[in-house]
Q: What sequence folds into this?
């Protein structure tokens, strides 16, 4: 007896994605409009009823300590200006909601199809933006000539040998008695020439 060639083999249904299985995508937006686009996108998700497909919209930022005019101030810095991360289940409806949001210029991906970023990349980004210790943001670079403005070496000139952004310190080579001597100083104690 010949077997029926058209017989279908039962296939287990694919598990329905949940927020934990929604993939992360990167969308490109107009730089400087990150917050506005995030807000607009969240409003559209609610009004168009796609909460079951678009779960989270994240602007990766981190807190940094910026030295401006001799004072340390905390600031929030966008890690990837012009980009937003979005956790979603990609289908025609969710793609259209994101793609037609004002300010969104497109998905980042290979070819025409948006490509999700790996879990490893997502973890690395989230870990980076949630680091507890604020980083110092400096405008100095190694090899740059500076003038020491405070401390026992005030008014001496030197060259930056190293920068420790974690601690807000610079190592400056100062010429003392015709010898280059390394001196560790705070960012606030040196100024560009």
A:
């Amino acid at each position: 007896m010949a077997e029926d060639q058209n017989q279908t083999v039962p296939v287990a249904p694919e598990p329905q994605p949940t927020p934990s299985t929604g993939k992360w995508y990167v969308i490109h937006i107009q730089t400087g409009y990150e917050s506005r686009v995030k807000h607009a996108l969240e409003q559209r998700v609610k009004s168009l009823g796609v909460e079951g497909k678009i779960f989270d919209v994240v602007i990766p930022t981190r807190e940094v300590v910026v030295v401006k005019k001799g004072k340390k101030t905390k600031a929030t810095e966008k890690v990837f200006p012009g980009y937003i991360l979005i956790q979603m289940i990609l289908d025609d409806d969710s793609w259209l909601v994101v793609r037609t949001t004002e300010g969104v210029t497109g998905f980042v991906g290979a070819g025409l199809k948006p490509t999700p970023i790996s879990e490893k990349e997502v973890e690395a980004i989230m870990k980076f933006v949630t680091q507890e210790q604020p980083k110092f943001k400096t405008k100095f670079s190694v090899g740059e000539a500076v003038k020491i403005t405070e401390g026992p070496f005030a008014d001496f000139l030197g060259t930056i040998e190293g920068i420790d952004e974690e601690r807000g310190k610079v190592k400056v080579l100062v010429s003392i008695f015709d010898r280059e001597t390394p001196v560790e100083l705070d960012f606030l104690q040196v100024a560009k020439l």
Summary: The chain has three helices and twelve strands. The chain has a mean pLDDT of 82. The helical segments are 34-47, 92-99, 119-129.
